[in-house]
Amino acid sequence: MKADDVMDHQPVVARLADFDPASGDRLERALFNHRPLIVLLCLIATVILSVAALRLDLNASFEKTIPSRHPFIQAYLEHRADLGGLGNAVRIAVETTGDSIFDAGYQDTLRRINDEVYLLPGVDRPFMKSLWTPTTRWTAVTEDGIDGGTVVPDGYDGSPRSLEVLRANVERSGEVGQLVATNFRSSVLFVPLLEADPQTGKPLDYRALSDRLEDIRQRYQTDRVRIHITGFAKVVGDLIEGLEQVMLFFLLAVAIAGAVVFGYTRCVRSTLLVVACSLVAVLWQCGLLALSGYELDPYSILVPFLVFAIGMSHGAQKMNGIMQDIGRGTHKVVAARYTFRRLFLAGLTALLCDAVGFAVLIIIPIQAIQDLAVIASIGVAVLIFTNLILLPILLSYVGVSAHAAALSLKKDQQDGPERHWLWRALDLFTRRGWAAAAIVLSAGLAVGGYVVSLDLKVGDLDPGAPELRADSRYNRDSAFMVANYAASSDIFVVMVETPNDRCTSYATLSAVDRLAWSLEQLPGVEATHSMAGLSKLAGVGFNEGNVKWYELIANDSALGSVQNHAPRELFNKGCSLLSLYVYLQDHKADTLARVVSAVEAFAAQANGPNVRFVLAAGNAGIEAATNIVVHKAMRDMLLWVYGAVVVLCWITFRSWRAVLVAVLPLMLTSILCEALMVWLGMGVKVATLPVIALGVGIGVDYALYVLSVMLSHLRRGASLSDAYYRALLFTGRVVMLTGVTLAVAVATWVWSPIKFQADMGILLAFMFLWNMLGALVLLPALACVLLPKSARPVADTASKPVMATL
């Protein structure tokens, strides 16, 4: 087979003077007849956006990661002023290696840490609690009646007498298991956070806050004191710190991709141009984000790499087409225009599918994901200019080396009548028997993958922060909290609404008590804390400590007197809201689902005009709402993504058969990706949900490049075998090259210190490989079954990028 048979019958034009500059469509003429202007405009844009990109910040926001329109979150936000600290908070456990916390040296260290943390920017100070805050009080029944005061006694001086009083106050404060460990060897500073720094009005800088907390840890941690820190702010801070190493993996991926492309082309200048244009796309993206007021966060930081990966895929296709034309003897400018004609529409359709795949994420009512959708869509839009337009124009100036062109021609000539063994193997899938076997095997994989994917959970499947390694310092700190405190850091809060001054009525408290008891019977629930439980303790205190009185007294006046000594967090000022604290062993998806189900079932029976049980506050309550939204959004998102891809493929090919051939391999990859998440023990959450959609957008590129060339040759009367072979020579070998290259590049993320990045590397590598295999194996097999055996020859319209109507 001659090499020019592969090239859509474009005539060889060795001299630029022999080429008609008026040929081609309007877009091609507008671009290539004004090449210097296009390059100048792109250079100006690169300089401006490079300066803007320097202002792009890396931060995170707690409120952006929660579904603000969900009823749980709306209820929490409505009562937020009365629920200080029940959303975004940090817990700092100060542990002593001595006998107990009742030591003058320990208490002095705790006091100094308390004072420093209290003054940190973004701390919601009225709701901060520790042994040294005035809101931490004790209450007891004495011979003179009910007595109480601050846990740290007035006149505390560190003397043995003061420490004995402190111990007594702690034991009767009710804070053992909450602020004080049950073994009395550590205590906690509970630090609720605001979303903005009240002094500057700017969003809270989590990296700076994490650094300040680390500075406190380093200065106060000694051989006698250990400090453990947990909370959303610390997770984000550790992620951002780890992202500095992520950049090293990004550079490694760039180096791997560039090295493999060079190994294929053996041309330094064209390889550098492909890499440079893909990096320029990332630079433009970052500049546009900065100008638009967006920030990168730990969950969207991987998007620039995806933009680079997509750019490398499209850029390699353009370079390969130009290299093959130049190898045939065509002038480099003409070769660039020929490649632009053949591949611009396929590339544009693929990028539009990518953009739509990203953009549909905006339907998910979580701002962090919506921001990611915008960030990714901007990046893909930029690629239309940098890799579909700028790259061919730049290659029209520099061309490829003579050695690379000769090597390309030699590869095509070597194939000749005796095709390469790999092409012969792939060609088997254009035959009925092999095609049927591939389709049956794929169907079996789809069914098996779907059965496994039914076990895919929504939310966290592990304790601590799954985004970080199990042995990370944060997860070790989290394990310390769980092991030493009966009241864990995973708090689910049920809000109980009543008319004013009715929160302590017997009817209300008895209902709260019944719900608390039923929740305590659930697996994963450690304890509950509410005004009802406090009132029962008060009943014992009012009756000389007789435990027989550990019951609610059916007397509203007696119950109402308890609120004078109750902690502020249990009810609001108008006594129209109670908080039922539910302390959980963890925030795993199953644990949260059980609690939500139990509360909703109870509320359905107990809610009435005088009492309403409303979900939910606390970090666990907010995460439960997030899980519900993510569960619903996952299927909606895939429906929208595939719907958009089907529409775009239909517009491009105008053939339902071709649409099925392009889309079915993508669906197989999506199903197997979900099965892989089950096997890896990954849950669907804010961090992982977008990757499922991104895989569809990236994968459609491969299918479109192969299928567009196949259909073009089928329309000219070629057999399916010949059409597929030509597609392999022209675009298929680059699909294989980029698929393997990018899979290897992201697979290096497995060694990242951030587990989230390592997981994403595994998923992306899997999707790159399976989408490549789908385009090279399943696509021709489906074409053998779905597409006609031959197509009627039509007039050659090589001056336009032609798609098939079958």
TrEMBL record:
Classification via Pfam families: MMPL
Domain of life: Bacteria
Transmembrane segments: 37-56, 246-265, 272-293, 299-316, 343-366, 372-400, 433-452, 637-653, 660-681, 687-711, 723-750, 762-787
Cellular-component GO terms for this entry: plasma membrane
Ranges where the SSD domain occurs: 270-397
SUPFAM superfamilies given in the database record: Multidrug efflux transporter AcrB transmembrane domain (SSF82866)
Main location: membrane
Membrane topology: Multi-pass membrane protein
Statement: the UniProt record of this protein carries the keyword Iron: no
Location of this chain's protein in the cell: Cell membrane
UniProtKB keywords: Cell membrane, Membrane, Transmembrane, Transmembrane helix
Protein name: RND family transporter
Organism of origin: Azospirillum griseum
Upper classification of the organism: Bacteria, Pseudomonadati, Pseudomonadota, Alphaproteobacteria, Rhodospirillales
